[in-house]
Amino acid sequence: KPRAVISEFFVDHEPVHPKYGVSDSFHTIMLDYDESNFGFEFSADNYQIPEKNMFRYRLKGYNDGWITVDARQRTVMYSKVVAGTYFFEVCAANNDGVWGEPTVIKVVRRRAPWLSVPAYFCYALALLGMAYVVFRHYAEKKRLKMMLYQENVEREKKEQIHQAQLRFFTNISHDFRTPLSLIMAALDKLRREGLKEYYTEWKRATAVELGKRTDGLPNRGERDDEVGIGTDRREQFRERYCGRFYGLCCRAEN
Q: pTM value?
């Protein structure tokens, strides 16, 4: 039986000496990622009327169908072959039509470095890194907005407390100023007229009334407690004004 022989190998239509290797008992041709156009020229070891030899070939993995040619078409070219592993098989038949066993050449075309598995791994890491940076950026931006919002809330709350304190102290001062003015006028009149007995009874009644006013301060300040005016501040005012009234009464009695 005749045997087909690979007589020439082409890359980009130029004859080259292929890079052979042995893999899985096949002769293997290794192609770089930029060698996508290649071809073969073949012949047969039957030299009796060689022009009547017949050939059939295929590149398994690229086109699995057999193509039959005569001795005048012993060259085959493949173009734009994607990266992968292929098997070129060629059989020869003599002038009697007897086909021999196929000759098999394994062709391995490497992937481009930027399309390899390590490259895809690097791409994935880069995407994850970019996603992390974007997430940190928006998270930090959100955190700063929250801090500004909290600062504004605290500032507004402090301003509300300050205004509430001013209103509270203004109202307290007004509540004490009016009765104390009346007390002072009455004390002066009683002292001039010398009505000691009436003066003593009037002083007791006035003290009771003033005590009622001061006892009502906690109820009046319930709303102010909510904005930061404590009971201690109100007690300080009560002691201050009650003490002043007591001193005035004592001076008037003497």
A: 0.54
